[in-house]
Amino acid sequence: MKSLRPKHTCLFLFLTFQSFFLSAQEEAFLYGEIELRDETRIKGKITWSAGQSLWVDLLVAEKKDNPILQHLNKEEIEKLSAEKNNTDWNFMALWKNQYPTRKLTFRTQFGNLLEIRVTGEKDATAVLKNETLIRLYINDDIEYKNQLGAEISITTENGKKTSFPWTKIERIRFYPTPKVNDNSNSKPLYGTLTTRTGYSYQGLIKWDLNEHLDDQYLDGISIDGKRSRYHFYDVKSIRPKNRGSLIQLQSEKEIYLHSKSNVTNENKGILVRNPQWGQINLRWGDFKSAIFTPYTKNSGFAYADFPIPVPLQGRVSIKDNRYLVGQIFFDLDEQWDIETLDGWGQGGGLRQVPFRLIDKIYPVSNTHSAVILRGGEKIVLGERSDVNDQNWGIMVQTNNDDFHYVPWSQLQQIEFDH
Q: What residue range is the signal peptide (predicted)?
């Protein structure tokens, strides 16, 4: 039987660039070259069509292929069908092509990508840093909105910003961000968020799922009824209060703002990203306070900080005291360490953790799983199929290239090799 392991042909010298080529305010920004169909090439800072502008931001799209399903036997498919009658399996597919179908989302940070090739109106091929090709597309799912098929913007070194329609683009190649790429003084928004349950998260911040630069504005209406706007670099902290927020400026002055989504419960969410534990999307109701601090160089958000992707490998322990060792296909879907494990945290917020940051996973109930990060932190996640009994199970490709399926209900623990 042919192995599904990738053939790694080369490493890229640009991944070894030293940090002195980067400056503190620029290393975290997306940078690359857009090649048009007429062979024109433009280099600069990139803003993706769904608003992503940092290496740590996620590309989210649907996978076209899931070849691991061919290693399920008829009995396993029938058993899954019987057990999963409350999930999003497409049962007609069982009769049409033997394999069930469902949403197969690919999520990875832009720092893991070598290039993206445009292959259709809403289709693309993502090329990982290890040269693996992943065919992607988007449908009407709200999570995929503008991820593919829309305009891509690029800002050149002279500060000129140009947007290109998706249909005119051949490919986008990514490169380490050079020390000087435009005339902007924008810096990533950075700080610490604390939740009402006492959890704290430090990292790059995306406020109201929009503002992510320190020279963008925090908007609200002041007590005297006037619209007030403050650059985030002038803001020291934000705390919800009544139907608005109490804002402390760097000057120590405090003001109360209300009636705009930036400072009320109409806020769409607050993202915090950290290279040690992934990202969390906090709802306004989870949020207690935010303290903003300067972004510092070598914080782990530069392109070179994202290592070459590798297949998931490890040991899968089964409840009957057996275990399997080999390449892991988690949820019959994720197979790379740069893909994410998703679940809602007990302290609030949707956690999305790259598998490369995870040491162990084990179910603690039908609805939740414990996740041990490589740094030793334990988090309990639920309400997503990655971490509850809607998980499709684990396929293990052992060293002799045999494939063994472990249903989620029989899983004791997964220990990943790194």
A: 1-24
In a domain, 85, yes or no: no
| 339 and 383 assigned to the same domain | yes
Q: What pLDDT shows up at residue 14?
A: 40
Percent over 70 (pLDDT), the chain: 88
**In terms of residue numbers, what domain contains 389?**
310-416
Task: Tell me the C-alpha distance between 289 and 225, whole Å.
Answer: 24
Do 412 and 318 touch, CB atoms closer than 8 A?
yes
What is residue 13's predicted lDDT score, i.e. its pLDDT? 41
Any domain includes 350: yes
Helix (H, G, I), strand (E, B) or coil at 1: coil
Domain count across the chain:
3
Q: What tokens does 361 get? A: 């996973």
The residues facing 396 across adjacent strands are 328, 404
Q: Cβ contacts of residue 116 below 8 Å, gap of 6+? A: 59, 124, 125, 126, 127, 171, 172
Among 329, 319, 341, CA closest to 385: 341
The CA distance from 28 to 265, in Å, is 29
User: Are 140 and 216 found together in one domain?
Assistant: no
Q: In the chain, which residues have pLDDT < 50?
A: 1-25, 86-97, 181-182
Strands 340-345 and 358-363: unpaired
